[in-house]
Amino acid sequence: MDSLTIVLPTYNEAENLPDMVQALWALGLPNLRLIVVDDSSPDGTGQVADLLAAQSNGTLQVIHRPAKSGLGTAYVAGFRRAVADGATLVGQMDVDFSHAPADVLRLLGEIRDCDVAVGSRYVPGGKLDSRWGAGRRLLSWWGNVYSQALLALRVRDATAGFKVWRRTTLLGMDLGRIRSNGYVFQVEMAYVAQRLGYRECEVPIYFEDRRIGQSKMSTQVKLEAAWRVFDVWRTHHRLTPADRLPLPLPEQTA
Ligand SMILES: Nc1nc2c(ncn2[C@@H]2O[C@H](COP(=O)(O)OP(=O)(O)OP(=O)(O)O)[C@@H](O)[C@H]2O)c(=O)[nH]1
Ligand SMILES: [Mg+2]
What we know:
Elements: E1 4-10, H1 17-25, E2 32-38, H2 45-54, E3 60-64, H3 71-84, E4 89-92, H4 103-111, E5 116-120, E6 127-128, H5 134-151, E7 163-166, H6 167-173, H7 184-195, E8 200-204, E9 206-207, H8 219-236
Parallel strand pairs: 1-2, 1-4, 2-3, 5-8, 6-9
Antiparallel strand pairs: 4-7, 5-7
Helix pairs in contact: 5-8, 7-8
The structure holds guanosine-5'-triphosphate (GTP) and magnesium ion.
């Protein structure tokens, strides 16, 4: 039976985290574990996470990092821990309710036939919150078109951050290859998975604007991210399935 560990990166999500954890526990998944990766959030998210861990019977653990160090390295740290702890499936999602907890079940339905299941805003049935202004929509759309054109990405939602990975995919990809830390992290993971020949399946999702808390998004951040996509191409465009990291023998049947 599969065991799912969801990695939850947090920076100033003290108001969202308890509700998100409750909503995930309420899914009733038998082997669900959670890993919160908090970067010493000034709003005390780390302490909130510790309290949740104390009530979790060991099913929630917290990685505390000393300073804000970016989404990408937070996920890599969480993924490594989840794999080391034996998770067969590893999830990633935002804690601000942009990703609906119930959609975890839909991603789990899809992962049976794929190596990574991707919650996608840009496949038929997927949708962006109507509260997103024209400027942000345009940037998101442009970031996608640009990434797809440069990298010939098959996934429609290049910057998707709601995914379920097979542990064998993460092991074969070799997380040590991943260089990006901000929004380009999602693009880099999608590109490396594609170059290595992993099957990526997209599930349409509705992406809601963050419920509580301040947006940390700025136009400058997105423009810079789009520029860094070129670096992703430069670093990985020669990868082929032969470059997968060989799996240790017991993993080959996992
Ligand atoms: N540990 C850690 N988590 C982060 C960092 N930056 C963002 N996060 C978390 O990553 C998830 C996605 O970040 P968001 O800030 O929601 O990104 P966004 O959805 O593009 O932007 P807004 O929702 O408008 O702020 C959230 O759970 C954040 O709390 C970081 O540097 N370190
Ligand atoms: Mg958000």
